Amino acid sequence: DAGVIQSPRHEVTEMGQEVTLRCKPISGHNSLFWYRQTMMRGLELLIYFNNNVPIDDSGMPEDRFSAKMPNASFSTLKIQPSEPRDSAVYFCASSKTSGKETQYFGPGTRLLVL
Amino acid sequence: GDSVTQMEGPVTLSEEAFLTINCTYTATGYPSLFWYVQYPGEGLQLLLKATKADDKGSNKGFEATYRKETTSFHLEKGSVQVSDSAVYFCALVFRGSQGNLIFGKGTKLSVKP
Question: Which among A56, B26, B40, B68 is least surrounded, fewest beta carbons within 10 Å?
């Protein structure tokens, strides 16, 4: 299996622009997670889906952030409009649906908002 | 609420030294426990896990034992290598939950030759 795939790997944009991050989970995994990692705040869970349905989005910082999972093999995280404080590494992870199952992480998208 | 507390880093060791990274948790119920490792510029990878009390997870010379009585899951390795330099995250997840991990803040390990 190719593992969790994220694109782009790096994104540089200007403040106010829309940013879309993409994730393809491992085939057969029913749960998908979006995380943000910064030096100041560490690793934060933004939102997670189970069977394509958002279960908990309490970690989404504000209305500028939105996430969708239109099917089992694709998810997007969108920031509109972007701000410099959104600069971070964004990780997607997937797992089989179960409280015991391991999460598998993608390589991350490094976002820089100027 | 449920939480994971790790020792603060950075931790700097010489090659072949003994490593301990402390991890304790606060949780209602009986979670599964994990150690993830993040090498520079990469995503997190599962290092080891334990799903019930007294279980020992092990991988690549690393070990951690699920201690219910002390609510701990300390990571140990008898002889570290330069290639072990990374950030280590302790995490828990509740059985029967939707699987969302609760992570500690991470401990950066640097191993010098």
Answer: B40
